[in-house]
Specification:
By secondary structure, the chain is α/β, with parallel strands linked by helices. Helices cover about 50% and strands about 15% of the residues.
């Protein structure tokens, strides 16, 4: 006979000891607790057959404890016996039965009576469990036999239906494959177009921001003029933020993937997300603490979460809940996802939802169902681009009137090394700006960008010269001319800035070179990993910093 667990709850150790002495003849497992908190700890960790509770306890009386125990689904039918050190009136007994007790043992306690009552309930618990086991076995046998009989009958039906099923399946797979191919081609085409537009727009913003900042420095002391120029600069900077989202969709942003603990990342941004959605929306989360690390750019993942939460907020005009969940993804993988281990991160809302036509276009840039001035249509585009560029995928499921779920499938960081405590690096000496005018060659095929960069350099006191292409830059050096520094655009027709840099490094190993570009596209240019780069649009201060770094030897030659 297997012993069962009996929980004894009393705040007085002497009384617990007396119960233990009385009940030790039963050969059951006796578990003692001196407070309601300790009792609940045992209840949550252990399967309890019978509970003995003292009525009078200082912090929480037995009636309150029994009422709380009965609220737990596992202990709604567990026998609970009140043990009272004082004689109880009939109303007290009725109150005990009302909260869920099944029996009373009052003073003076008769050991034989207490043992008998506990034995009855312990045996009842054992027999109940045995009966449940026998019923489960019987049901399993009946189910097995029924399944065998049904399998024999179903086998014939399956043979008759198999051919038709295969035809339907192949037809459906072909239609789904064609639809997925069309969608992939459409998004890829939009991505190429978007990346090109973002690149050209960055060049325009480069010229606008550079000129506005220089103009601001030259304006007379006029508050109205300064306010107008500042407003124009802020508008151009908002344009820069839009191009970053476009580049994310086009998969041309520069990512820094690393092993990311999503549980900790969400804890760090939860306050920010709560402020973004507002007090009327509840944030719920289901993220296991032992979740495997993700291989992703943590900053971009935080931005993606912010975009998803803002979309959910806009769908919950009257309030509601947003739920974020994360789990190891094993089934129901999106089509085209490469093999390997993935984590599925889902952000769900119980808002108005979308119809199928809207879902099919939700990830397209600039597509939005929000009113004028309420959205750019780039949030889901950015999330889609991040997932694809990180080696994962995105799924959007929505039901009109019930809500939307956006799921990110991101790869697991297979080789994960737990981060060591950061060691403060020694303070670096501040870079010393150039003390003399420098001869600088500016290479860019866009005349507006070239003019703006030259103007910023002249404003800094340097002597810039211009080249509209890489070949013209090579002619500059072939003619015997020289310079102290080269600043070159990367995406140029004929020869890219990276190719120009390789030619110049071969002939002039010590020549400082800065690569500038409207989007991240250096991954294929092997050998230039450590070359100094600038992202367009850049400010005069950023240009000065890059020049100081290049000229101080902080960036080694590739």
């Amino acid at each position: 006979m297997n012993p069962v667990n009996i929980l004894l709850v009393d705040d007085q150790p002497a009384k617990l000891l007396s119960y233990e002495v009385i009940l030790e003849e039963l050969d059951e497992n006796l578990i003692k607790a001196q407070s309601a908190r300790e009792a609940f700890e045992h209840l949550l960790r252990t399967e309890i057959a019978v509970i003995l509770v003292d009525v009078c306890m200082p912090e929480q009386d037995g009636f309150e404890l029994v009422s709380m125990i009965r609220q737990h689904p596992r202990y709604q039918n567990t026998p609970i016996i009140f043990v009272s050190a004082v004689m109880l009136a009939e109303p007290d007994r009725l109150r005990g039965y009302a909260v869920g007790a099944v029996d009373y043992v009052s003073v003076p306690i008769v050991p034989e009576v207490l043992r008998a009552k506990v034995r009855v309930f312990a045996d009842l618990y054992r027999k109940t469990r045995e009966l449940e086991r026998l019923n489960a076995e019987l049901e399993a046998r009946v189910h097995q036999r029924t399944a065998e009989l049904e399998a024999s009958a179903a086998q014939l039906r399956e043979l008759n239906e198999e051919l038709e099923h295969r035809i339907d399946q192949r037809t459906r797979e072909r239609e789904e494959a064609l639809a997925q191919l069309f969608e992939a081609q459409k998004l890829d085409t939009i991505g190429h177009l978007t990346g090109g537009v973002a690149h050209d727009f960055n060049n325009l913003l480069m010229a606008v921001l550079g000129s506005l900042n220089l103009l601001k420095k030259r304006l007379p002391a006029d508050e109205r003029s300064e306010r107008l120029v500042t407003n124009a600069i802020q508008a151009a900077e908002r344009g820069t933020a839009l191009t970053q989202r476009l580049l994310a969709f086009a998969r041309r942003q520069e990512l820094k993937p690393q092993a990311v603990d999503f549980f900790r990342l969400f804890e760090n941004v939860e306050d920010l997300l709560a402020k973004a959605v507002g007090p009327r929306i509840e944030i719920r989360k289901s993220i296991p603490a032992d979740l495997a690390p993700l291989l992703v750019d943590s900053n971009q993942l935080e931005l993606a979460l912010l975009n998803l939460f803002v979309n959910a907020r806009d769908a919950l005009e009257s309030g509601g809940a947003v739920t974020v969940a994360a789990a190891a993804a094993e089934d129901d993988r999106p089509a085209g996802l490469a093999g390997g281990n993935y984590i599925r991160i889902s952000v769900s809302d119980d808002g108005e939802g979308m119809d199928e036509a809207t879902v099919s276009r939700a990830a397209e840039p600039f597509f939005t169902t929000k009113g004028v001035g309420k959205g750019t249509g780039l949030g889901l585009s950015m999330v889609h681009g991040l997932a694809a560029q990180s080696g994962g995928s995105i799924q959007i499921s929505s039901v009109r009137g019930k809500g939307t779920t956006v799921s990110l499938w991101l790869p697991v960081a297979e080789t994960f090394v737990k981060a060591q405590p950061a060691v403060e690096p020694p303070a670096a000496e501040p870079l010393k700006p150039a003390s003399r005018p420098l001869a600088i060659l500016v290479v860019d095929d866009d005349a507006l960008v070239r003019t703006g960069t030259v103007a910023m350099l002249e404003d800094l006191g340097h002597l810039p010269q211009e080249a509209s292409s890489a070949s013209q830059a090579l002619e500059f050096f072939a003619d015997g001319q020289g310079c102290d520094l080269v600043i070159t655009d990367h995406a140029m027709p004929g020869m890219t800035g990276a190719e120009l840099a390789r030619h110049l490094r071969a002939s002039f190993p010590g020549l400082p070179i800065i690569l500038a570009s409207g989007y991240a596209e250096f991954s294929e240019d092997h050998g230039l990993g450590r070359m100094l780069r600038m992202k367009k649009p850049f400010t005069q201060e950023q240009l000065q910093t890059a020049m100081d770094q290049a000229l101080s030897g902080k960036v080694a030659a590739a």
